[in-house]
Fold each of these.
Amino acid sequence: MTDNGRSPWLLGGAIALGTAILALVGWGQVKPVEVPWPLRWTHAPVLFAAVDSELSGPLEEALELWRKNTTHRVRLARPGETVDVVVHVDPALDVLGRASVQSRAGKILTVSIAVRPRPTLPVLLQEIGHSLGYGHPIAAPSGHIMRSSDPGSRDWRGLEGGDPSSVG
């Protein structure tokens, strides 16, 4: 093997490229995230109900995280209360989850959330976000609740009352 003087340049180039990639990843973890929020409820708390018993526990866990990490007042409905958001399992669903939001003049009227059997926590978190009127932010970093592909469960930036230090 001969050293024709290129080795230091190649090493320097590799280090510079690695540093640039790390800087981009780091910037994604600290930059503000602008989450579209075109629709709103006119009341709080927003009451959820699980149609399928297998969803009650996971849905309550997801709602608790929304209460803990944002200012949204969301909870499961008690017997006899009017339900705002119905959550059910649809084994034939072609995506992990889907929130069908009915609205008028920017105000949410009702929501139906469909999820596949045994939904993951990030899927439930994101569908709850859609039921609260949030959309997908452009170029959301990994781990963000409202990231369109591969949603996370630890980054709440850009959500009402979302903790900017919740990345982790």
Amino acid sequence: MKRSNGKILHTLTMALVLVAALAQPACTVTRMDPVGAEPLEIAREVDIGDYIRVFTKDDTKHEFEVTRLNSKFIGGEDVEIRYVDIAHLDVRNVDEWQTAFAAANATLSVVALVALVALIVIIATI
């Protein structure tokens, strides 16, 4: 017994909505890790090109990509902060587990979409 086209369309729409709800973009997931405020620790943990968040001793927050590092300060495009003024510093790092999970989730979502479409085609021909 064949299903009506309306029911097939409804089933396909619901399947696509389900897959779209489950699909998340596979992207790199990052987190901010605390580094500390000591110049040697900053030099060991921070490189040119890193994205950092700095809290100064006067409670000012700066977020920027590091473009300059030397023995006295760390700097970005429009900012230079002396090490002695830093209260706390965080550096952005890749979260490998969450990135792997996001990529696996996106892959499984595509596989689920293909399987649902195949199932709908099979049901429509019964």
